[in-house]
Design goal:
By secondary structure, this protein is an alpha/beta fold. It has a five-stranded parallel sheet, with helices on one face. Helix 1 crosses helix 2, helix 2 runs antiparallel to helix 3 and helix 5 runs parallel beside helix 8. The protein is globular and about 60 Å long.
């Protein structure tokens, strides 16, 4: 079956970053922003991490957004979502400063543009742990406009997260494709390469490689953006 769409991860793939540094900056910044509104920073930070874990474990019964806020309420003993304006204000202001801990690679946008010019559909399969407002910002940090992607995932509409294979099933269903018609490109050996389990082709981008489980990566097509472009061009000749 021919490949019709190329799906890209965002963090560490199109947007270079050390994800641990990014996570610390994000959680610390959000907890600090909530302090003037009666939230103790350490408790808020723990609640954010617990809410994130709840999204990762989501079984699909509810949206990731609902999982997050329900866990936040459980941890904090108050309806934090009633104060969502605090979070939205953070995303519009101090969150933008976190771009400083991220890198930038102009080859990312160049490569995606060339792949689209070849006739492939392009989507952003970023782990849906963030609201749309934060995802849109991170897309722009990487040198894109959200409209550059036919489809992308956020916590408002997603019901699974990586590395659950059902996350990828949801993406291809939304795009009305089969897994065999898709190529998944990502930097995480566990979270992105698992797409292979449902029948997708995969490509491991190694610029910001993550391999927490120490897997043997020799069987994956892999490399930098130049290698990715060559791999997609090869696929195009086989379609």
């Amino acid at each position: 079956m021919s490949v019709k769409a190329v799906l890209f991860d965002l963090d560490g793939t199109l947007l270079p970053m050390d994800q641990e540094i990014f996570a610390r900056s994000y959680v610390g910044g959000l907890a600090g922003a909530a302090l003037p509104h009666g939230y103790e920073p350490k408790s808020m930070a723990r609640a954010i991490m617990a809410g994130t874990d709840a999204m990762v474990k989501n079984d699909g019964v509810k949206t990731n957004e609902d999982c997050f806020w329900e866990e936040m309420a459980h941890c904090l003993g108050r309806d934090a979502k009633a104060d969502v304006h605090i979070f939205n204000a953070f995303y519009a202001t101090d969150f933008q400063k976190i771009q400083e801990v991220c890198g930038y690679n102009d080859r990312a946008a160049e490569t995606v543009k060339k792949i689209k010019a070849m006739g492939f559909r392009v989507a952003l399969a970023t782990n849906p742990l963030f609201p749309k407002v934060a995802t849109d910002s991170r897309i722009r940090w990487a040198g894109f406009d959200p409209a550059d992607f036919e489809f992308y995932t956020t916590y408002e509409t997603s019901r699974h997260c990586k590395p659950n294979p059902d996350y990828y099933r949801d993406v291809v269903d939304a795009m009305k494709l089969s897994p065999e018609e898709c190529l998944m490109v990502g930097n995480d050996a566990d979270e992105d390469m698992i797409a292979e389990q449902i029948g997708m082709r995969v490509f491991l981008l190694t610029d910001c490689l993550i391999n927490k489980s120490g897997r043997d990566l020799g069987g994956y097509p892999q490399g930098d953006f130049n290698a990715l472009l060559a791999y997609v061009e090869k696929i195009q000749t086989m379609n």
